[in-house]
Amino acid sequence: MTDEPSVAEAASRLGRGGGLDLIFDASGALTIDGIGPEKTIKALDPAAMARQFAVNAIGPALLMKHFLPLLPRQERAIFATLSARVGSIGDNRLGGWMFYRASKAALNQIVRTATIEGRRTHPGAVVAALHPGTVATRLSDSYGARCNQLSPDQSAALLLDVLDRLEPALSGGFFAYDGSVIEW
């Protein structure tokens, strides 16, 4: 998803079937190439940080670039992308995980900015960043034991319920699996 020609080709193939009314980007990575979340600025590794941004912000931005135009222009349609509560700048009380947090905060800004631009051509579109909760997957294996976990099926059902309730006026927002608004 960080290879733009590949993303463009996928959008072209899927766009041939007509307009899409739901595009759901479920990408993201906390550990990349064996490098997990750092706990201090002393662990800053520019290459690891760049990989976090590539997967968690640039990849979804490329998806928006090529897939948002495939949404119907006037009808309600949705582009949703998985973010993470730790991408909230205002909700950061613990520190750590700087690269992952920053990449998800960047994604949230991309969602917000793409929404403003998209309203001009696709006023019925809803673009949203979603926090799926702590989901019992490989991503949360190493830290999830301390959190209440949702099964993947539970999280997916809750997120789809949130999306069903979002109207274009709420486009560009950041929402949790329970429908609550997350501060930026």
Q: Tell me the fraction of residues in β-strands, as a range.
A: 5-15%
Spatial arrangement of strands, main beta sheet: 1-2-3-4
Major sheet attributes: 4 strands, parallel
Between the first and last Cα atoms, what is the distance in angstroms?
Answer: 25 Å
Mean pLDDT: 93
Sketch the topology as an H/E string, one letter per element. Answer: HEHEHEHE
- Rg result: 16 Å
Structural class by secondary-structure content: alpha/beta
User: Uncertain segments of ≥5 residues (pLDDT<50)?
Assistant: none
Q: Give the tally of β-strands.
A: 4
Structure commentary:
With 184 residues, the chain is an alpha/beta fold. The protein contains four helices and four strands. It has helices at residues 4-15, 46-67, 98-121, 152-165, and strands at 22-25, 77-82, 125-131, 173-176. A four-stranded parallel sheet has the order 1-2-3-4, sandwiched between helices. Helix 3 (98-121) links the parallel strand 2 and strand 3 (125-131). The radius of gyration is 16 Å and the shape is globular. The two termini are 25 Å apart.
Task: Provide a compact summary of the structure.
It is built from four helices and four strands; from the N terminus they run αβαβαβαβ. The chain has 184 residues and is α/β, with parallel strands linked by helices. α1 runs parallel beside α2 and α2 packs parallel to α3.
